[in-house]
C-alpha cells in the first residue's frame, strides 16, 4: 500500500463501460487513459472533447501528459457523455421553449448544452419528411389525377437524410469558423444545439403539410419558416453577446427560411 | 479496487451473486450448466493415439479406434487417459457439454452439428426475448448467451422481404432497410451508453435484432396480402409486439429519469420500419 492515495469523489454517471478507478497520487506512465478521470468536469467549450486524457491531480496544470487536443478522446464514448447529460423533463422543457416562448431558450442551454435534442430531432424529421412527403405527394396528385396509384419513392429517405443532416451539421460549423475568424468567442456545441432545436417546429408543420390544399400548405410553410428564423435570430444574438453582426444574423435567417421553402417544394410538391 | 467497494451494485449483479452462491452451496452432484457452452478449443492437429504412446506405456487397444485426442502428456496413466475419452465416444466427436475431459474437436465435426447448435441457440434466444417468460424482467439473465447470427438473419430477411414486395427500385429499398436497421441498432446502443446507461454493447445489438422477429412476420404477411387495411392492422400489432419485447431491457438499462429518452429512439426506429412495410407495395 502506498501512501498518498487520493480519492476524489468521482461523479460516476458518465463513466461508462469502464470501472471507475482510484486516481493515484503519483503519475504512472500513461496507462489506461480512459479509466482515469480528472476531478474537474469536462470542458464543454472544447470540441473534440479532451477529458479522455489523463490528468494527474497535484501535478502542475497541464503536465506533459496533455499536449495539444488529445485525439484519443475523440473515439471513446465516455468522452461524449457530458453532452447527453439531460433528463426527460429537461429535454421536454427545451423542446417547448423552442416553440413558445422563444426568448428563454438560450438561458436554458447555456449551462448544459446537449446534443441529444439535435440528433433525435433531426432523425425524427428525416423519417417524417420521407414518410409524409410520399403521402402528401400522393394525395395531391390524386386530386388532379384520380387514377394515380400509390407509389413509394424510397429516394425521399436519402434526400431527407442528406439535406437535414447536412444542414444541421454544416451551417453551425461554418458559422463557428466564421465567428472565430472575426475574433468572437463562440462555442460549437451551443450552435449545434440551437440549430437542432430550431428544427423542432418543422415536425408539427410537416404533419400539417399533408393537407392537400395548396394555399394552406404555403401558409404553413411561411409560418414555420418565419418562426424558425426568428428563433435562430434571437439565440444567435444572445450567443454573440456584445458584438453586432447583423449580416451574419440575416444570412442565418435567410438560410433557415430557404430550408423551409426547400422542404415544401421538394417533399410536399 | 481493494479500497472497499463504494460503488453500489447494479441491480442485475445481485442475481448473479445469488446464482453463484447457490451453486457453491449446492450438492456436489448438481449439474452445473455453463452460461454458454464452453468455446471449442483452438484447432489442433488430430493425433491418433496409437503411434504416440510413450515407450513405457503398453499400447492401448481400447482407444485405438477412438476419436482423435489431443496429444496426451507424458506420464499420464492409463486410467486417466481412458477417462479422458469423451462420453459416448462417437467416432465423429460429440458436442460435449462437459468440457472438462478432452475437448471435442469442432473442426472435424459434421457441418450439420455446427449448424444445429447455432440454430438451437437462435431459437432459445428468440424464446427468451420475444415470448413471455419469467426471465424477462432481469436484464442480467435475459439473453445472457447472446449471439449475432439471429439478428443477422432477421435483418437480412426483413430487407429481402421488403425488396421483394417493392415494385420499383428494389435494390435501393433493400439498402435503405438494411442501413436503417443495422445503423439504427448501433446508434440506439450508443445512445443508451451516452445517456449513462449500463448495457453491454453486443448484448444490446443482439437484443434489438431479435426484437425484429415480429416485424419479420408482419412483413411476410404484408408481402402475401396486398390490402392496405390488413397491412395497417398487421403492422400495428407486430409493432406493439416488438416494442413490448424491447421495453424491459431498454428501460432497465438507464436511470429512471431518462427512461423515455432511451425508449423514444427504439420506438422511432420500429415505427419507421413499420411505415416502410406498409408503404412498400
Molecular structure report:
The complex is a heterodimer of chains A (269) and B (281). Chain A is mainly alpha-helical. Chain A has a domain at 88-268. Chain A has eight helices and no strands. In chain A, α3 (116-144) packs parallel to α6 (202-208) and α4 (155-181) packs antiparallel against α8 (246-267). Chain A is globular and about 60 Å long. With 281 residues, chain B is mainly α. Chain B has a domain at 141-280. In chain B, α4 packs antiparallel against α5 and α4 (149-165) packs parallel to α7 (213-224). Chain B is globular. The model of chain B is unreliable at 51-55 and 57-99 (pLDDT under 50). Chain B: Belongs to the YIP1 family. Chain B: The chain crosses the membrane at residues 148-166, 173-194, 200-221, 228-249, 261-280. Chain B: It is found in: Golgi apparatus membrane; Membrane. Chain B: It is a multi-pass membrane protein. Chain B: Residues 142-275 form the Yip1 domain.
- Helix/strand-derived category of chain A reads mainly alpha
| Topology, number of strands of chain B | 0
Helical fraction of chain B: 40-55%
Cα distance spanning the termini of chain B: 59 Å
**Shape category of chain A:** globular
Contiguous helical run count of chain B: 9
Fraction of residues in helix of chain A? 40-55%
Instruction: Kindly report how far apart the N and C termini of chain A lie.
Output: 73 Å
Major beta-sheet overview of chain B = none
Q: What is the count of β-strands of chain A?
A: 0
| Rg calc of chain A | 23 Å
The low-pLDDT segments of chain B are 51-55, 57-99
Oligomer: heterodimer
DSSP strand (E) fraction of chain B?
under 5%
Question: Which ranges of chain A are low-confidence, i.e. pLDDT below 50, for 5 or more consecutive residues?
Answer: 1-5, 24-41, 52-67
Write the element-wise H/E pattern of chain A from the N-terminal end onward: HHHHHHHH
**Which chains make the largest contact?**
A-B, 37 and 34 residues
Main beta sheet strand tally, sense and closure of chain A: none
Gyration radius of chain B, in Å: 25 Å
Structural class by helix and strand composition of chain B: mainly alpha
Transmembrane segments (chain B): 148-166, 173-194, 200-221, 228-249, 261-280
GO biological process, one term (chain B): endoplasmic reticulum to Golgi vesicle-mediated transport
Region (Disordered) (chain B): 28-68
Pfam families (chain B): Yip1
